[in-house]
């Protein structure tokens, strides 16, 4: 199994930025795609962004398009999510996983957008 460890979350004011990181325990080079997901309190987990194995193609949910950027570094087994122009509705626990996802999930990283 691949262990995934997310980091980089925190408390930020509306309009601010954060960069999330996801470290995989082994090579993710062969993975077809990776994604970032988020789960707000009382809501279902949702897909935020995906990136193909070579990093050429990315997709975003409508709610984050134009504000978030997903990237990956296969040599370092890392996936990133740059989040700009953050809004209170972006508050959630953020997870990375394959796309589509597989168990187990990591512990996630909390992002709170509040003034």
List keywords for this structure.
mainly beta; four-stranded antiparallel β-sheet; 48% strand
Give a description of the structure.
The chain has 115 residues and is an all-beta fold. The protein has strands spanning 4-7, 10-12, 18-24, 33-39, 46-52, 58-60, 68-73, 78-83, 92-98, 109-113. The strands form 2 sheets. Strands 2-10-9-4-5-6 form a 6-stranded mixed β-sheet, with no helix packed on it. Strands 1-3-8-7 form a 4-stranded antiparallel β-sheet, with no helix packed on it. It is globular, with a radius of gyration of 13 Å. It starts with a strand and ends with a strand. The mean pLDDT is 94.
Please specify the SSE layout and strand pairing.
Elements: E1 4-7, E2 10-12, E3 18-24, E4 33-39, E5 46-52, E6 58-60, E7 68-73, E8 78-83, E9 92-98, E10 109-113
Parallel strand pairs: 2-10
Antiparallel strand pairs: 1-3, 3-8, 4-5, 4-9, 5-6, 7-8, 9-10
> What is the number of helices?
0
Query: Major β-sheet, in short?
Result: 6 strands, mixed
The main sheet orders its strands as 2-10-9-4-5-6
SS class:
mainly beta
The run of helices and strands is EEEEEEEEEE
- The end-to-end distance, rounded to whole angstroms, is 39 Å
Q: In one word, what is the shape?
A: globular
Low-confidence stretches: none
- Give me the Rg, rounded: 13 Å
Mean pLDDT: 94
Helix content: under 10%
Counted beta strands: 10
Q: Strand portion, in percent?
A: over 45%
């Amino acid at each position: 199994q691949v262990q995934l460890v997310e980091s980089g979350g925190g408390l930020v004011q509306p309009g601010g930025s954060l960069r999330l990181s996801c470290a995989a325990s082994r090579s993710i080079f062969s993975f077809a795609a990776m994604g970032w997901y988020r789960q707000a309190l009382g809501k279902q987990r949702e897909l935020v962004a995906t990136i193909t194995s070579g990093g050429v193609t990315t997709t975003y949910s409508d709610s984050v398009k134009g504000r978030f950027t997903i990237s990956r570094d296969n040599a370092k087994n890392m996936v990133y999510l740059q989040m700009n122009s953050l809004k209170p509705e972006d508050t959630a626990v953020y997870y990375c996983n394959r796309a589509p996802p597989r168990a187990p999930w990591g512990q996630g990283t909390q992002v709170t957008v509040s003034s």
